[in-house]
Design the sequence.
């Protein structure tokens, strides 16, 4: 097989630092064993998130200088608005400071207390906004999405039977919209097929229910469609993206992911009445409908970034770099979520640290151990991220217990991926030595951001030599 390389060359470099093991140990202690609380200057390779960590192109840096910082009617806003209309096909666009700003507006406008919002698995901020507005999230993703070893081309698909059952049970008037994420972050960056998007949209239309995309990773989703769905192989990504969005009534978007910028977002829709309300509401929370919390230069960079994101060579390399890391780990027998998704490799911490029980926070423990081993920062996506049940106050125990190695777009080379693979494999080979954690401080909402931990004293190893 012929090897491929990054479809860009490096014009500016940012030196990396690497602390020694003793310094990393100190840094980890200061951070309460929570990788969210590490200082970035203490991190060597930062795979915490692909959110806002994108590297911009020379054209985007150039575009920053073209930002029109007018308070109203900025040229840069019109450029962004036209890019969204052109690439996604929506009529109306509302800018926001980032994705959750759009989620806030959408949830406030559409959700009444007692409503249900079905989705193909939850996302943290999305669900938080739904709940704060009195709604209840209902998971309607296919069962296989909860099984880390199930090999499926489109593991993010909506289960139409589950969705139809919910509609029958609570009634369509209690469902303001279905939220379809493309790809599904929490399932491991798994895609939704074009066929499933169409079926979901058709079912919702029959019941008069809107479909709102969480479009955060829609270009990555389009790549999987091009790669895997019948009849899509020779079509440009741009056309596939356009086709996907035909099966929706609107979307929320985080500019910090696929649009290749560091901050920004938007809400888009075809319904003029909803748009009119959003124009009122955005002023209260974000800013004028012609900037929504972004600087003119941010909007310029995002418009440019959106066009770069649908470049076929770019997106192919993006997906394949993630897969390059994932395949090295699989070859070494490390348990990972399969198939490798669009933006991250997810370690299956339940299998990796099978000697720890769930209340010892295996994913959190593994993320801490990885930082200690090599200065690589990853993220917990398991019992800590899932929070507690509103009624019982017990931990929500998600089926998946994962550590996410998230690859920033255009930032690291495949050599960095090799370093990460070596470290994970090293840990896997001595996994019995990794201890669990106890939670010393627990914030009431989105606890994973600020929780603090300390190592359990006993090693809980059954047969340590
Ligand atoms: C990041 C993300 C969001 C929220 O976007 P922000 O820009 O971080 O507010 C929503 N949904 C998904 C799937 C995301 O990955």
Sequence:
């Amino acid at each position: 097989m012929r090897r491929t390389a990054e479809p860009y060359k490096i014009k500016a470099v940012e030196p990396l630092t690497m602390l020694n093991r003793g310094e990393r140990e100190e840094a980890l202690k200061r951070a309460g064993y929570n990788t969210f609380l590490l200082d970035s200057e203490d991190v060597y390779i930062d795979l915490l998130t692909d959110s806002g960590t994108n590297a911009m192109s020379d054209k985007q840096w150039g575009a920053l200088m073209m930002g029109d910082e007018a308070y109203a009617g900025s040229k840069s806003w019109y450029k962004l608005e036209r890019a969204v209309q052109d690439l996604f096909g929506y009529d109306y666009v509302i800018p926001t400071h980032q994705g959750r700003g759009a989620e806030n507006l959408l949830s406030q406008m559409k959700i009444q207390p007692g409503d249900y919002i079905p989705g193909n698995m939850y996302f943290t901020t999305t669900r938080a906004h739904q709940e704060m507005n009195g709604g209840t999230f209902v998971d309607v993703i296919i069962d296989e999405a909860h099984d880390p070893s199930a090999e499926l081309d489109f593991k993010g698909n909506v289960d139409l039977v589950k969705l139809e059952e919910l509609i029958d049970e609570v009634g369509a008037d209690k469902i303001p919209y279905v939220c379809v994420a493309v790809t599904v972050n929490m399932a491991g960056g798994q895609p939704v097929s074009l066929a499933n998007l169409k079926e979901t949209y058709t079912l919702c239309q029959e019941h008069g229910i809107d479909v709102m995309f969480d479009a955060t990773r829609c270009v990555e989703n389009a790549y999987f469609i091009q790669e895997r769905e019948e009849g899509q192989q020779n079509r440009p990504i741009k056309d596939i993206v356009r086709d996907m969005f035909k099966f929706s009534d609107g979307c929320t978007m985080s500019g910090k992911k696929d649009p290749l910028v560091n901050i920004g977002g938007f809400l888009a829709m075809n319904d003029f009445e909803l748009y009119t309300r959003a124009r009122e509401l955005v002023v209260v929370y974000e800013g004028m409908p012609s900037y929504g919390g972004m600087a003119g230069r941010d909007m310029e960079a995002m418009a440019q970034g959106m066009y770069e994101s649908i470049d076929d060579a770019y997106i192919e390399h993006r997906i394949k770099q993630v897969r390059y890391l994932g395949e090295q780990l699989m070859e070494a027998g490390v348990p990972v979520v399969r198939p490798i998704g669009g933006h991250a490799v997810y370690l299956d911490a339940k299998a990796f640290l099978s000697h720890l029980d769930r209340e010892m926070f295996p994913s959190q423990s593994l993320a801490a151990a990885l930082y200690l081993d090599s200065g690589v920062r990853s993220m917990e996506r398991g019992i800590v991220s899932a929070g507690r049940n509103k009624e019982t106050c017990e931990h929500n125990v998600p089926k998946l217990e994962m550590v996410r190695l998230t690859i920033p777009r255009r930032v690291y080379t495949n050599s960095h991926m090799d370093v990460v693979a070596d470290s994970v494999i090293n840990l896997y080979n001595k996994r019995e030595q990794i201890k669990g954690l106890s939670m010393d401080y627990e914030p009431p909402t989105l606890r994973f951001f600020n929780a603090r931990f300390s190592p359990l004293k006993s090693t809980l190893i059954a047969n340590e030599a």
About this structure: The chain has two domains: 21-50+312-455, 58-309. DSSP finds 16 helices and 14 strands in the chain.
